[in-house]
Amino acid sequence: EHIREDCPICFLPLPTSGNNTYKSCCGKVICDGCMHGMIVVDVNSSGMVKMGGNCPFCRAPHVSGEEEIERLKARMKVNDALAHSTLGYAYHFGDNGLPRDQKMAISLLLKAAKLGDTCANFCLGKAYDEGDGVEKDETKAKHHWELAAMGGNVDARHSLGIMEINAGRSNRDQRLIARSFKHFAIAARAGLESSLDYIKEGFIKGHITKDEYTAILRAYQKNKEEMKSDTRERSERVVQLCSKLGEEQDEQERRAISEQCAQLMGLRLKARRGNEASP
């Protein structure tokens, strides 16, 4: 079953999948609703948005690049699993000034997984499933997803469901198909919408009974309601607005979108020139 953790700021359950931020300054995982409440939005002369501000838990200033890497390494010395995996993601994507290095990324994720980070297991499973940085290996992918799922990771549970249902449909094996819906049911009960979509499909096709579907839907709705807050909903709208920022907008349009983001979250918006915050 999914092991729920609470945000250390608002004390609401952390969102089931994503919308959380790991802070290397204190090692806490904070929901994006609480994170965005401390953000300062800065729009530079080219109209690009920069995010700054202090950590809402320990009040340490936001850093990036070499300073962020040093913070992660300090956390790694005390065997912080999330610090290992976060540095692994940085090597995978080439973030914070690091070169892309898939071998180093996999090594760090393996260490993080050994230290108990189920997200690291999930990402390792995805890497082996897609052949991303490693040789494609479905057996290893399934192994890592099973370890993550046993640790309560709903994304891994959903991935096992996908693997089982695809194999069941290819081989016309109803046993595998039935097992896939058990995975989807666990993830859906925990609040994962993508798994609930499969449960709906299973109900329509007769793999899920009406009573089972009703119970799963109620559990899903209960979890979603418990994870819901105004600040989290506003932060999601901010992310949607920021996704519109691209090269096609001019500086004035980017500025307007940034101001909308600031108004949604009650953020401080710095003037385009200088460091004084606008009222």
List keywords for this structure.
single chain, 279 residues, three-stranded mixed β-sheet, two-stranded antiparallel sheet, 5 strands, globular, disordered C terminus
Order of helices and strands: EEHEEHHHHHHHHHHHE
State the helix count.
Answer: 12
Beta-strand fraction estimate:
5-15%
Total E-strand runs = 5
Catalogue the unreliable spans. Answer: 43-49, 268-279
Q: Describe it for me?
A:
The protein is mainly α and 279 residues long. The protein contains 12 helices and 5 strands. The protein has helices at 32-36, 66-76, 81-93, 102-114, 118-130, 138-150, 154-171, 174-189, 193-204, 210-227, 230-242, 251-265; strands at residues 20-23, 28-31, 39-43, 49-53, 268-269. The strands form 2 sheets. The chain has a 3-stranded mixed β-sheet with strand order 4-3-5, with helices on one face. Strands 1-2 form a two-stranded antiparallel ribbon. A hairpin with a 4-residue loop joins strand 1 and strand 2 (28-31). The chain is globular and about 55 Å long. The N and C termini lie far apart (47 Å).
Write the layout of secondary structure elements.
Layout: E1 20-23, E2 28-31, H1 32-36, E3 39-43, E4 49-53, H2 66-76, H3 81-93, H4 102-114, H5 118-130, H6 138-150, H7 154-171, H8 174-189, H9 193-204, H10 210-227, H11 230-242, H12 251-265, E5 268-269
Parallel strand pairs: 3-5
Antiparallel strand pairs: 1-2, 3-4
Helix pairs in contact: 2-3, 3-4, 4-5, 5-6, 6-7, 7-8, 8-9, 8-10, 9-10, 11-12
Gist of the model:
This protein is mainly alpha-helical and 279 residues long.
